[in-house]
């Protein structure tokens, strides 16, 4: 049990740095070959930030651990809104621009509805995965078009954690060999970290006698959401919390369209009845709950952050009490 916990934490650390190295190497090489920064940002950097969730789900799905894979995505989406935005708002109220609620929020909510819809028959098939990936391609295409033709598109780029800082991943001193080593090392790190996390999470579930969906919804989901939590908390402390909502919406959208879509094409995912009747509705409910909270004065206040955080803790308590 102790060894599994150590391996889980080690896997989480390797996973985080693997994603950082992958983005640094891939974006640096792409920029060297003359690919426009906005294209690099909206593809390599944006998708790279979702690679930890992707690798964890891919390895879990290949091993037949479908509950762990789905629990990770559903739990991450819940944690991103209820835990991360809630905790960040307690530090400092979060400003929300009207454009985010009018454009980005409906896209995120639409992705959640489609996600739930394709899971209602008990299986997220390859065809369902193809639908999600098609939506992802359309989404990125729209962002690229909007970024090229609309100077106000910056908030949409911020939505998926892509800003100028995101592209400052490669220093001028980095040679092509160094960037290639970052790319290869990051890829290997992601694979190794994901293996450690999945294998140790399954072992912890077996030792404690709890279901894989519970592990996925709790420690795995929170673990893969820690980078977003750290970024949002730092943003709140630096009085840059207005970026938090867009980043969270983008993260949730990519979790569904990129991670679930790609993984289910490779290995269809089975969905348990409890996941359909309890966990999916909670995820959708929290996503819907965000709209009236954010619409009020276009700000998430400390009180509203407390409500989000209390909702998250209540859900975690339910999982522990009723499923362990």
Automatic annotation (TrEMBL):
Pfam families: Na_Ca_ex. The keyword Transmembrane helix applies. The chain crosses the membrane at residues 6-23, 35-61, 73-95, 130-147, 180-198, 204-224, 245-266, 278-298, 305-323. Residues 5-144, 180-320 form the Sodium/calcium exchanger membrane region domain. This is Sodium:proton exchanger. The keyword Transmembrane helix applies. It is found in: Membrane. GO terms for cellular component: plasma membrane. One of its GO terms (molecular function) is calcium, potassium:sodium antiporter activity. Keywords: Membrane, Transmembrane, Transmembrane helix. PANTHER family: INNER MEMBRANE PROTEIN YRBG, SODIUM/POTASSIUM/CALCIUM EXCHANGER. It comes from Longibacter salinarum. It is a multi-pass membrane protein. GO terms for biological process: intracellular calcium ion homeostasis. InterPro entries: K/Na/Ca-exchanger, NaCa_Exmemb, NCX_ion-bd_dom_sf. It comes from the Bacteria.
């Amino acid at each position: 049990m102790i060894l599994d916990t150590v391996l889980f934490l080690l896997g989480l650390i390797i996973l985080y740095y693997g994603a950082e190295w992958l983005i640094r190497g891939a974006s640096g090489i792409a920029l060297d070959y003359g690919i426009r920064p906005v294209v690099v940002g909206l593809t390599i950097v944006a998708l790279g930030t979702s690679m930890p969730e992707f690798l964890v789900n891919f390895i879990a799905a290949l091993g037949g651990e479908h509950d762990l894979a789905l629990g990770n995505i559903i739990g991450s989406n819940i944690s991103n809104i209820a835990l991360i935005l809630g905790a960040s708002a307690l530090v400092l109220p979060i400003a929300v621009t009207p454009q985010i609620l009018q454009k980005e929020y409906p896209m995120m909510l639409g992705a959640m509805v489609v996600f739930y819809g394709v899971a209602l028959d008990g299986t997220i098939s390859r065809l369902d995965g193809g639908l999600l990936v098609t939506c992802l391609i359309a989404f990125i295409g729209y962002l690229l078009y909007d970024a090229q033709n609309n100077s106000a598109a910056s908030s949409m780029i911020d939505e998926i954690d892509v800003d100028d800082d995101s592209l400052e991943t490669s220093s001028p001193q980095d040679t092509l060999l160094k960037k290639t080593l970052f790319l290869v090392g990051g890829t290997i790190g992601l694979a190794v970290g994901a293996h450690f996390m999945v294998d140790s999470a399954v072992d912890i579930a077996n030792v404690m006698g709890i279901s894989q969906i519970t592990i996925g919804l709790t420690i795995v989901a929170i673990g893969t959401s820690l980078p977003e939590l750290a970024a949002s908390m730092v943003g709140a402390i630096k009085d840059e919390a207005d970026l938090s909502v867009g980043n969270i919406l983008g993260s949730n959208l990519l979790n569904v369209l990129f991670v679930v879509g790609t993984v289910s094409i490779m290995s269809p995912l089975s969905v348990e009845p409890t996941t359909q009747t309890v966990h999916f509705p909670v995820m959708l409910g929290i996503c819907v709950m965000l709209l009236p909270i954010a619409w009020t004065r276009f700000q998430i206040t400390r009180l509203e952050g407390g409500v989000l955080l209390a909702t998250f803790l209540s859900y975690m308590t339910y999982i522990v009490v009723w499923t362990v």
